[in-house]
Amino acid sequence: MTHHHERDAPGRASHDLPDHLRHRLSRPLPGRHAQLRLAPRPRHWPASDAVLRPAAALLLLYAHEGEWWLPLTVRVSGLRAHGGQVSLPGGRLDHPDETVAAAALREAYEEIGVAPADVDVLGALTPLPIAISGYLLHPVVGAAAQRPAFVLAPDEVDRVIEVPIARLLQPDTISWERRALSGGSKGALDVPYFDIGGARVWGATAMVLAEFIAVLEDRTSE
Asked: pTM (2 decimals)?
């Protein structure tokens, strides 16, 4: 495989992808403009990020069968918050001294059994305010040399959806639907989502993935 060919197909398990991502994530990011591509419309942002509590999520790349993949979790349907939804492994910071990267690694270990020692932290994407839950989500990007032996937390995770990165880059992965507002409010939202593994990935998770895709697409044009 030539170097040029690897850049044209970032989903393939080229050994240089983690190093290129580490470099790219240290530069200015696509940010909110990219996140908004997969945001429900209309989108309401909190007045200030300062009022939000910090949370972290791990976007984990791993090489498997000649491709790069990432795991998404389907939350147990009975959970009080976001039950049945698809998300990245993650949660709030445990204490003020815990770093975002440490929290992302801890949550990935607790939820899907990924050992922190097996993850090379490459950087982070743009923090995403989630007004409905009161969190500022910090997406951490990491890489593993091989597919983890996933061990699911039965009280939190129903299943793992393993997504080939190349699939995220295909235009037919994204669809839209119209949803009535919840809580008795009048009106509706136009909601974009990824159709992946028989599940609809929308909301904050889709917005994080939208920026990650923008980073990958930027890499192909370097």
From this structure: 0.89
